[in-house]
Amino acid sequence: MATGPGGARAAGWRAAAERALYGPGGFYLRPEGPAGHFRTSVHASPLFATAVARLLAATARSLGTDEVAFVDMGAGRGELVAGVLAAVPESLTVHPYAVERAPRPAGLDPRVEWCAEPPAGVSGLLFANEWLDNVPVDVAATDADGVVRYVLVRPDGTEEPGPPVGGADARWLARWWPPAGPGTRAEIGRPRDEAWAAAVGTLARGLAVAVDYAHVRDARPPFGTLTGFREGREVAPVPDGSRDLTVHVALDACALPGAELTDQRTALRRLGVSGARPPLSLAASEPAAYVRALAAAGEAAELTARGGLGDFGWLAQPVGVDLGWPSRSPGTDAADGGGPGGGRGPGGGALPGAGSPGL
What contacts 206, CB < 8 A, 6 or more positions away? Predict the structure, then answer.
């Protein structure tokens, strides 16, 4: 840690973001919650929670049971777990857990167990929607002499070069994000690999899914992805607690043996969400049904849009069971309709298509 002008201390981005997001008065502990500043797929449409409920039911079938756990990692204010409980079939008994550092919100379904860590030894679906991008990581930059150094940052966002990267962080970069020359940056995803492995390890049997901004080794962004969000707008990444700090996820590095990596467009189509428009004949026979179907198609188009939420990565990790995907519903291979983007920014790079081999 270095001291700059005026006594402001510079620290690595991992420590600075941890303090800004989760320390006293940190961004994720503020009363308005994340939804006060940006939308995720959960906020974009209830179709997302309905799709996750279908995946939960499919996981239960893979487990051969009608009693299953649902673990919502990085639960925000409980929006996803509430939506899943509203959408699951009555025949399925769900034990819901919301994993979040912020206090339990008022009015949440009393069935939901609010906890700071995922429960150990449960069987079911662990779902992490935009959780890993907020697991803080260090940033590295290659200097003019080709030395890869940590990037240090002060509370006002001013950066400076730090010591050379070594040890486990250097080995992670060599494998997953090799330095690309002077002036380039990389984000050291090792803490996310460890966080994801620990979360997956809490499942006795079932399926773990991470959904996030993502990129893969062959398409790493040469200058990184670190940015900030506040009140619906992208802003400079300043670690002062006033804004979200987010970094896209190297999902291929997180993947454990047997995982499948795909994009949200493909995953949601498998789960029955499509942006296909309803037939015009429905407008003549059932106008109200047509209007409802048209609205749903618009929401589905946003969730699956190219250049937006549809480009998010989905990492599906089975634990002691088959993957758990349900069969495709009729019509889910239709065009996505190209709806508007959403969330906190664009999807992050090309991902392997559905059915790719285990990583």
Answer: 59, 62, 63, 68, 69, 122, 123, 124, 125, 126, 318, 319, 320, 321, 324
CA-closest candidate to residue 345, choices 39, 29, 18, 8: 39
Strands (E), 74-224: 93-99, 113-115, 122-129, 138-142, 148-153, 159-164, 185-188, 203-212, 214-215
Lowest-confidence segment of 159-173, 182-196, 286-300 by average pLDDT: 286-300
Q: Which residue's entry shows tokens 């189509």?
A: 269
SS3 316: strand
Contacts of 228 (CB under 8 A, 6+ apart): 234, 235, 236, 237, 238, 243, 244, 245, 246
What gap in Å lies between CA 143 and CA 95, rounded to an integer? 51
Alpha carbons 291 and 287: distance in angstroms, whole number: 6
Strand partners, 206: 124, 319
Three-state SS at 205:
strand
User: Phi and psi (nearest 5°) for 221?
Assistant: -70, 125
Report residue 57 as tokens. Answer: 């039911």
Q: Which pair of structure tokens corresponds to residue 29?
A: 């502990």
Structural Rg of the chain based on CA atoms: 21
pTM of structure: 0.85
DSSP state of 64: T
What is the pLDDT at residue 281? 66
- Separation CA 236–CA 170 (nearest Å): 27
The DSSP bridge pattern shows strands 67-73 and 93-99 to be parallel
pLDDT confidence bin for 15, thresholds 50/70/90: very high
Identify the burial level of 178 via C-beta atoms within 10 angstroms of its C-beta, where 0-12 means exposed, 13-18 middle and 19 or more buried. Answer: exposed
| Spatial separation of the C-alpha atoms in residues 37 and 124, rounded to whole Å | 31
Q: Using an 8 Å Cβ cutoff, are 190 and 247 in contact? A: no
Q: Which string of b and e fits 212-240 if b means at least 16 CB within 10 Å? A: bbbbbeeebbeebbbbbbbeeeeeebbbb
